[in-house]
């Protein structure tokens, strides 16, 4: 049975079930697997012939060391990975892993769907449990992915906190029109304020005693484990192509660093990746850390890539735990930071010169890959959201009208149920106490 330790105290170890249910360690640390098992080299060599489900099952089964029964894990895998994750080769000769073909058309569908189904598995074994309250601060994609994944899950209530005026109408519709066990809370503040409210709720001992709280952000290790799968599947698709795979570099759009952590864990499991490229916008806390050695959070600044607007990357302690030192982090990860102007230029060039449409987040990763890739290396950029999720922004930049995919259009005109939330923790706490 795998154990998970707190990044604040390696001796504070819990089971996977405890880590998933609580989300955050009591000491405020993030849970990390005590042991990251190595997959057999034969598996890596034979992945090219495997389906996504086969790759996913093997990777997660090894990672969890049999903690979830085989039949239950196969069902979770089938319900999580029920959409394609294609690797697309652009005219520029680089590769883009499209992670946006799920129900809400963002990479977070993978982690949220896995966590929801894993939580349902645990809930079925503990009928005595109280209602689980899932707290989710969002700048757009996380809220919709979690709301959709947990919709009507028995014994669970989802509370999505989003900053007033900072989430576009299409993204907002994805979580505010669902109803049922999902409540959309419009916070009078920034995305950082939303995260702070959730952090205060977890630190509230009285509230934690009266309510069963967890989070479905990348703080929860259940979000990160399945995200390892698509790194393996990208490599499998490269192996099935005609390109060399001895020096593979993956570029990741970075905000809270959860996706980067998943990639590093995949490498620790034996995936032969040469290095990672972290791509940030002007909210470049991690980029500055790699350059200066100082991790200095600050208030986030709004950009055309809202999912990258993080002023205090929550998964930084996990990156530290995996790399061990600043020198090792610099060897493993090359950091880049871009302004809105850079992202706009990249989107226009990719669209008009390469006929490939990027959203602003994926544009950061694509530009960083172009700048970082060395001769003889094979590069993959993660495309984390469908361009139509930022419809007006993307149309304005590329000068072309987009067709809104059916799964996005379906919620566009639904009835919105939004509950305004006054500033400050007292109002949020009062709301939660009425939900018991």
In short:
With 436 residues, the protein is an alpha/beta fold.
Q: Descriptors for this entry?
A:
436 residues, Rossmann fold, single chain, 6-stranded mixed β-sheet, alpha/beta, 19 helices, 5-stranded parallel β-sheet, 14 strands
What name is given to the CATH topology of the domain at 84-106 and 225-405? Rossmann fold
Which percent band covers the strand fraction? 15-25%
Radius of gyration: 20 Å
First-to-last CA distance: 33 Å
How many β strands by DSSP? Answer: 14
Uncertain ranges = none
Structure overview:
The radius of gyration is 20 Å and the shape is globular. It is an alpha/beta fold and 436 residues long. The chain starts with a strand and ends with a helix. A six-stranded mixed β-sheet has the order 4-5-13-10-11-12, with helices on both faces. The protein has a five-stranded parallel β-sheet with strand order 9-6-7-8-14, with helices on both faces. A three-stranded antiparallel β-sheet has the order 2-1-3. The chain has helices at 16-22, 41-46, 52-64, 70-80, 108-125, 141-150, 169-176, 191-203, 205-210, 221-239, 258-268, 285-292, 316-323, 326-332, 340-354, 360-372, 391-398, 406-412, 425-433; strands at 3-6, 9-15, 31-33, 87-89, 95-98, 132-137, 156-163, 182-187, 212-215, 248-253, 275-280, 333-337, 378-383, 418-421. The protein has a domain at 84-106 and 225-405: Rossmann fold (3-Layer(aba) Sandwich), CATH 3.40.50.1100.
Describe the protein's topology:
Elements: E1 3-6, E2 9-15, H1 16-22, E3 31-33, H2 41-46, H3 52-64, H4 70-80, E4 87-89, E5 95-98, H5 108-125, E6 132-137, H6 141-150, E7 156-163, H7 169-176, E8 182-187, H8 191-203, H9 205-210, E9 212-215, H10 221-239, E10 248-253, H11 258-268, E11 275-280, H12 285-292, H13 316-323, H14 326-332, E12 333-337, H15 340-354, H16 360-372, E13 378-383, H17 391-398, H18 406-412, E14 418-421, H19 425-433
Parallel strand pairs: 5-13, 6-7, 6-9, 7-8, 8-14, 10-11, 10-13, 11-12
Antiparallel strand pairs: 1-2, 1-3, 4-5
Helix pairs in contact: 3-4, 3-10, 4-5, 5-6, 5-10, 6-7, 7-18, 10-11, 15-16
């Amino acid at each position: 049975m795998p154990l998970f330790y707190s990044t604040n105290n390696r001796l504070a170890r819990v089971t996977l079930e405890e880590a998933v249910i609580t989300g955050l360690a009591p000491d405020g640390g993030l849970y990390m697997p005590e042991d990251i098992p190595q997959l057999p080299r034969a598996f890596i060599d034979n992945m090219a012939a495997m389906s996504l489900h086969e790759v996913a099952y093997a990777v997660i089964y090894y990672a969890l060391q049999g903690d979830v029964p085989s039949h239950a894990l196969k069902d979770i895998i089938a319900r999580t990975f029920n959409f394609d994750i294609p690797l697309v080769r652009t005219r520029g000769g680089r590769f883009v892993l499209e992670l946006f073909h799920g129900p809400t058309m963002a990479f977070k569908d993978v982690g949220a769907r896995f966590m929801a189904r894993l939580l349902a598995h645990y809930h079925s074994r503990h009928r005595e449990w109280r209602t689980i309250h899932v707290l989710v601060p969002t700048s757009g994609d996380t809220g919709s992915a979690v709301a959709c994944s947990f919709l009507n899950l028995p014994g669970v209530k989802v509370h999505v906190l989003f900053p007033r005026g900072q989430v576009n109408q299409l993204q907002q519709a994805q979580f505010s029109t669902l109803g049922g066990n999902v409540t959309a809370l419009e916070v009078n503040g920034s995305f950082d304020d939303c995260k702070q409210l959730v952090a205060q709720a977890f630190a509230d001992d009285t509230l934690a005693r009266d309510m069963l709280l967890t989070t479905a952000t990348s703080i929860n290790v259940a979000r990160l484990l399945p995200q390892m799968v698509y790194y393996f599947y990208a490599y499998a698709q490269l192996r099935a192509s005609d390109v060399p795979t001895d020096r593979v570099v993956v570029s990741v759009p970075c905000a809270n660093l959860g996706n980067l952590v998943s990639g590093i864990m995949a490498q620790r499991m034996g995936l032969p990746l040469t290095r990672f490229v972290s791509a940030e916008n002007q909210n470049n806390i991690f980029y500055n850390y790699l350059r200066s050695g100082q991790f200095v959070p600050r208030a986030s600044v709004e950009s055309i890539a809202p999912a990258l607007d993080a002023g205090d990357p929550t998964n930084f302690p996990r990156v530290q735990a995996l790399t061990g030192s600043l020198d090792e982090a610099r060897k493993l990860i090359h950091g880049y930071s871009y302004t809105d102007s850079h992202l706009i230029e990249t989107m226009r060039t990719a669209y008009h010169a390469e006929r490939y449409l990027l959203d602003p987040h994926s544009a950061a990763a694509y530009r960083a890959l172009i700048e970082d890739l060395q001769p003889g290396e094979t590069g993959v950029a993660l495309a984390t959201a469908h361009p139509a999720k930022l419809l007006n922004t993307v149309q304005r930049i590329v000068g072309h009208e987009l067709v809104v995919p059916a799964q996005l259009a379906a919620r566009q005109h639904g009835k919105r149920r939004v509950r305004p939330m006054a500033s400050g923790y007292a109002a949020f706490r009062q709301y939660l106490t009425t939900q018991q």
